[in-house]
Specification:
The protein is mainly alpha-helical and 491 residues long. The chain is built from 14 helices and three strands. Strands 1-2-3 form a three-stranded antiparallel beta sheet, covered by helices on one side. A hairpin with an 8-residue loop joins strand 1 and strand 2. The protein is elongated, with a radius of gyration of 33 Å.
């Protein structure tokens, strides 16, 4: 009998079924890594939120808006709200009648204006007197509220009153000139004050675009005033260069001088505009990526970076001159050009040009104030010009205005009669260099009012004059629709 040995098997020396320890270890590592990421995200989020809250609180503590909700105010009753009357004035403007400044008619920007100008201005006056009256009423109300409620995103805020305000300012400004030319200087100066009040009201809207529109309206008022002031008539003084039914009063002139030289108000308005621009930027950065939960702290920190990138712009509003402002803004601190700052890079604008425009209007306001003071001096001194601008102090000016474009502290320049072809006051302009005295490198061939980019210095005439008439090359109409073959030389 054969005996069979039991079968033998190779002994297995590994777990069966396989335990996959490496997979378990990988899962553990993954979970630990995920927990680490969650921890980092939580810590990052707390850090970003705390930093954002701290900076928002600092802005609010300074009395400035930090977020869109901070711009909201209790609703102002219509009867006390200047914006209510301005909206009515804008609505009352006749859409079928334009002002000379807004028309397609081409004419010199200094008098004497052609007959066509007077026809357009007269039509505007007759069609829009109710709008002018409402603008005058608005000036009696210092409180302004164009909008009571602002919400995010601020980029969607609609400001339809801005275009209407420009149109209203054009009509009032050209009407002021017409009033001056027709012998009503008292009403002409009141109209200039109406434009200035409109600019101040527009500046109350907490957005940079409104500030830019406001300084444009102020520039328009100054341009018209510089024309009027050269031969302004004032009651109780002599001589006058022309008869007038209603001369301006000395009180009106002093009130205008106070408006022109109230630069603290202008500084506050500019700082408020730049603070509001910061709010706009922060609102945009925090609104659009808010659905990105994991990367939300990055955008919060980017908003903080945008806040600090605006600090130097707001601080620059305290600089007394343009050269000092240029130094203060160099170098311009902006967030890094990385993915972490992609939104701030998109929404932070370069505001150098806006700051330059601020100084242009400040300079022009000081020049206009000086022209008014010289005019009063001449009327008090039988038409004689002051020997220097110091002669205007203290009766006509508290002090001679300084030149905001001078690299060193210096007063506005003065070219008296006999030294130059026409007496003028001037600023050295954007090159910081006096090209007028003692010997000019060039001289304007046309009267000057308003900012002239082409001039080496910013000249402003103290008298009314006009260049020799140009020969008429054609009898064709200057613009389509002219009823008669008038040219720019028609008086």
């Amino acid at each position: 009998m054969t005996t069979h040995a039991p079968p033998t098997f190779d002994e297995v020396d590994y777990p069966y079924p396989p335990r996959f320890r490496w997979l378990k270890r990988l899962v553990v590592v993954y979970l630990l890594f995920a927990a680490l990421l969650v921890g980092i995200r939580i810590g990052w989020g707390k850090f970003a939120q705390k930093k954002l809250d701290t900076n928002l609180a600092a802005i609010r503590a300074a009395g400035e808006p930090a977020l869109a909700v901070d711009m909201n105010e209790p609703t102002l009753p219509d009867a006390d709200n200047a914006a209510y009357y301005y909206r009515q004035a804008i609505a009352k403007l006749n859409p079928n009648v334009v002002s000379p400044a807004a028309s397609n008619y081409i004419y010199n920007d200094y008098p004497p204006f052609p007959r066509k100008w007077f026809a357009i201005a007269d039509a505007s006056q007759k069609a829009n007197q109710r709008a002018f009256d409402l603008a005058r009423e608005a000036r009696k109300h210092p409180r302004v509220q164009w909008m009571a409620t602002y919400s995010s995103p601020l980029i969607n805020v609609v400001l339809p009153h801005l275009n209407g305000a420009r149109d209203l300012a054009n009509h009032i400004g050209d009407n002021a000139l017409l009033l001056h030319f027709t012998g009503n200087d008292a009403e002409a100066l009141d109209s200039i004050k109406d434009i200035w009040a409109l600019a101040d009201a527009i500046d109350k809207t907490p957005l940079l675009v409104s500030h830019l529109v406001a300084i444009g309206i102020r520039a328009l008022a100054i341009d018209r005033l510089e024309i009027i002031a050269r031969d302004l008539t004032i009651e109780g003084v002599s001589p006058t260069t022309r008869p007038t039914d209603r001369p301006a009063t000395r009180r009106q002139v002093k009130e205008l001088l106070a408006l022109l030289l109230d630069e603290q108000a202008a500084q506050r308005a500019t700082a408020h505009a730049y603070a509001s621009e910061r709010t706009f930027q922060v609102d945009s950065i925090l609104y659009y990526p808010k659905s990105s939960k994991w990367m939300w702290p990055m955008f919060q920190l980017d908003a903080v970076a945008a806040m600090h990138a605006n600090d130097h712009w707001i601080a620059s509003t305290t600089q007394p001159t343009w050269p000092a402002t240029v130094v203060a803004l160099r170098p311009t601190p902006l967030p890094g050009d990385t993915l972490a700052h992609v939104f701030s890079r998109m929404v932070i604008p370069a505001l150098n040009r806006a700051r330059l425009t601020d100084f242009k209007v400040i300079t022009d306001a000081r020049l206009a104030a000086t022209i008014l003071a010289v005019r009063m001096y001449r009327l008090d001194h039988n038409g004689a010009f002051p020997p220097n601008l110091d002669a205007l102090v203290p009766k006509y000016l508290a002090n001679v205005p300084e030149d905001p474009f001078s690299a060193q502290t210096r007063e506005l320049g003065y070219a008296p009669p006999g030294k130059m072809p026409h007496p003028m006051v001037y600023s050295v302009g954007e090159d910081y260099t006096d090209n007028t005295m003692p010997t000019p490198t060039t001289w304007p061939t046309e009267p000057r009012n308003g900012w002239q980019q082409k001039d080496v210095d910013q000249w402003r005439d103290l008298t009314s004059w006009s260049p020799p008439p140009k020969p008429k090359a054609s009898t064709q109409n200057v613009n389509p629709g002219d009823e008669s073959p008038e040219t720019l030389d028609d008086q």
